[in-house]
Amino acid sequence: MSDITLYTFLTPNGTKASITLEELGLPYKAETVDITKNTQKKDWFLKINPNGRIPAMLDGSQRVFESGSIMLYLVDKYDTERKISYAPGTPEHTEQISWLMFQMGGLGPMQSQANVFSFFAPVRSDYGIERYIDETKRLYGVLESQLKESPYLAGNKYTIADIANFTWVRGGTLLLEFDLSEFPALKKWRDEIQQRPAVQKGLTIPETGRSEEQLHNMLKAGRERILGLKNEDKN
């Protein structure tokens, strides 16, 4: 039996964890860690994740932090029927891990920087915005190439690799307003995953008291602020 508490917020990394829990049908409690108020830097949370980032999780006394680690922990311990994962030691499992690490080491960091320069930076840097948006789109092209050959990233089965990349692709279309028409296979994949009941539920976790639309409007206000600044980058 699980005794899981998920500490999270409505971000692509946060919803990676909640969708995984929902797909596995595991009971869990969700605690809101409001990153807009720096709650993730409080002492009590740093005892769960020393890095001060969401999501983090407790399963009984076992702490797990970093979103990819949470996903791997959950499928290793609880996905005995291999609903959203492949058995370790198989070629498909290796492919699944590769695409999970693609998101962790590539898509997530690059799109995060695109977000920072587009919404949060104290100065405007056209160079920074262009660099990270272009790199994010290049990574979307990598996903597009794979999904032209395979219905899911790691073969014929939907896995945690798809969940991890899906939340970021969805975030790119909502926040950075990327048009996926140039990535038709990626768009089809995103649309199909978005219809899954567990995904729809996971995207609402945790309840923050603010709608997703309100959060998006806050980010759009940040973009308008940056666009109104004089470009101070000298590169």
Automatic annotation (TrEMBL):
Superkingdom of source: Eukaryota
GST C-terminal domain residues: 89-215
Record-given protein name: Glutathione S-transferase
Family designation: Belongs to the GST superfamily.
UniProt-listed InterPro entries: Glutathione-S-Trfase_C-like, Glutathione-S-Trfase_C_sf, Glutathione_S-Trfase, Glutathione_S-Trfase_N, GST_C, Thioredoxin-like_sf
Occurrences of domain GST N-terminal (ranges): 1-82
